[in-house]
Amino acid sequence: MRNFYKHQDVATARSNRHLFWLTFAVMGTTIVTSIVIVYLALLACSGIKTELPDGQIVDLSEHLRSWPLAVEIMTGVSIFLVATCIAVKSYLKVRQLGSGGGAIIAQDLGATEIVEGDQLDANSRRLLNVVQEIAIAASIPPPPVYCMQNELSINAFAAGYTPRDAIICVTRGCLQSLNREQLQGVVAHEFSHILNGDMRQNIRTIGVLHGILFIIETAEICWQTATELWESQDMSGASVQLSIASFVAAVFLWPVGVVGLFFATIAKAGISQQREYLADATAVELTRNPHGVANALKRIAGFDKGTRVRSPMAIEASHLFFARGVGFNRLLSTHPPITDRIRRLDPLWDGVPEFEDDYTAEYTGTFEGTMNFATNGASGKNSNTTPTIGEEDSEDGERSLFAKPNDKERAYRSAVASTIPIDLLELLHEPLAAGATLLALRSSTKPIDCHEQFRQVADDLRAVIEALSVEQRLLLFDETLRAVAKQPLDSALIAELKRTVSRDPEDLFEFAWNNMVESWLKDLLREERPKPKFAKLEQAEAACSIAVSSLVHAGGNLGPAGEYAFRRGAAHMDLPSAQYRMPEECSIADLQAAADTLSLAAPGAKRLIGKTISACITADTEISANEALVVRGLVSKLGYPIPELLPGHPVTPGA
Alpha helices, DSSP H only, in 534-600? Predict the structure, then answer.
């Protein structure tokens, strides 16, 4: 698979086609159910006599049919009521599935988190390294990693309603039975689901199917009611009529619901299968190596334990897995056949799976494109050695914004920390002092406007904080957030922080502080971020121009040098028509407005913005004070974890 973009477009188009059929199935089921309800209502009215104003006695059913548009109005009201019930049931199910995040699903499947530490075995450390590499290639923060230790089959999944609560989970068989190249392909495939928003779509699709179940559940209630009435000892005429009506309703509604659910399930399976093809193609884009995913699938095809996940929760999570986790026929399967996936990735495949006898424990070659991390210093030459966490560069040879700090960067951070008064750091252990420090950091150069509870302490700290350099203040900010997060939630502090964030920033430090605190508060309070409004950066070209121009100016580049740096950064966003803005066109208000706009971008567009920021800050060998502030503010607004960048921070310059 060389033309992976074409495969992505084809898979997306087919997925949208299946989504149309799913919508059609739901609408068809709603309309047919409504017609059945109206028919049953008219049938129930048959034989019931009613007296008209002129004294004439007529059949109620015939009387209703004689009214102009009566049946049409009844049908419209019925459609509205049925659609409302389905929508409510779907919404409640989506809310239930999306409330816990991916970690809840992983834990329900018996998985445990892999946390970096000295006690990790070689396979777990290799997995963390691979996840870090793909995160850099995707320009998103690495998600938490889990492993199902009791599952010896080869499988994996990504779960979570949004990229912020997403996790990557693999089986123990995946760790033990795949070499590094194959594991990289599997992890890239799961990252693709995160980037393409498949997790949210899957949860919404499940919610729709759950809504259709309302019709079947109603039929079952009607059947139960009819049965109980027939078995009761006291059968009056009204009871007989009600039991017959309930029986007829069950007989009509149950097949309608089952048929609607069947076709909706087929459409859901079609959507899931196309999203798997899309994830395979996106994984090739991330790794520039089609053999990673293809060879993993070949290994699965020849693996004696297969892909079956034995956890009781596997059926509910079947749509999430890398390969089929439970047994379904092809029509209803959420995954396409493994052989079809392999042939799309490797058209020259001879059809022979990779058996255990063919398995090589480790891949020692180099990967093409994105995965060719520069590990030989500034030479830029590729090495056959496996890159370790913290040493990775992006595909353009640039230091990633989200790469884990290396030894040089950690040493610089420790050196800055040693210059901060120890008494100031010790104050952070007191909840009131930590909150006051956080507020004082924003207003260190002017009177502090905050609640009386914090004002006195903040005023006392203001002179000390004002004497700190920008890098010291930023490091103190990081330590203060950590301290506040470890302490009991203070509602007064939260209210004060929200009020402070709502004030417009007047300088770059306030711009960074506002967006970092706002992002931190959303995470702390589990508030949902705004839904994406656009997928292409062309739709926010002005905001992109202002953001990149501001970052260029922050680096001290003006005039022709500034325009060159702008073009270098904008090239990562594929916006040739973007216009370089002069400093007077990039006020703090303009920058904040641009950040607000870019926060509404889809994950794929945000990934391009992240690459652009990384390219801009690696244009030279260190980060200026203004660069650190602009980067922190922008990245926080995009919804990514705050990068711990400090002014003077050493970076590897771009190639």
Answer: 541-554, 559-570, 588-598
